[in-house]
Amino acid sequence: MSKLYDKKVECPICGNEFTTKKVLSSKLRVEKRDTDFMTYYKTENPIKYDVFVCSECGYSAMEKNFNKIRPEWKEIIKDKITTRWKKRDYSGVRSTEQAIECYKLALYCGELLGLSSYHIANICLRLTWLYRILESEEETKFMRFSLEKYKDFYYNGTFTQDTSNDATIAYLIGELHRRLGEYQEAITWFSNAISSPQIKNNLRLEKMTREQWRVAKESAKKS
């Protein structure tokens, strides 16, 4: 059985029906995970297919947000995206480069519609991961974008059932700082995560946080 299947999607902007590939969850085989939550698969990487792109109007978004459209957004997309859209099709098997194109389209749409910093940060983090696969210097740029957006959300956003909790976000901010070589900032954010009551509900996250706090402390001493 194929690891990929076709999912039928109706665009909430223009009503166009199109198909997009998805990975069968039963076929997923995890190889390893990085400390910023990037997952490596022995099979096809499902991250590459998390963005839906309407071939007709150009509206693009991550799957879980694709249909969450406000009425006034339709005209914004039609005016700012569709009028300049050169029709293209992302319904087939996506290369890493094509996946990056899809995420950048979703990022542009998200910024245009004023989506939350949490939503934008998630897109940028996945772009960070995809560029890591390519061993591209662009990884650092999108890591920085992601970091700043997560910090904005941490300070100014509202934690809901649709977002990660404050302990997870604080850990991720700390880990991104650490990966950027900003060890003192990383230590501070790991400490914020450890002091959060939410972390007691996630023993795996608590263990990761304490380990990365130790790694950041050692790196700070060496530098």
TrEMBL record:
Residue spans crossing the bilayer: none
Coiled coil feature spans: none
Keyword line: TPR repeat
Pfam name, any one: DUF2225
InterPro entries in alphabetical order: DUF2225, TPR-like_helical_dom_sf, TPR_rpt
Domain of life per record: Bacteria
TPR repeat segments: 167-200
Protein name: DUF2225 domain-containing protein
Organism ancestry: Bacteria, Bacillati, Bacillota, Tissierellia, Tissierellales
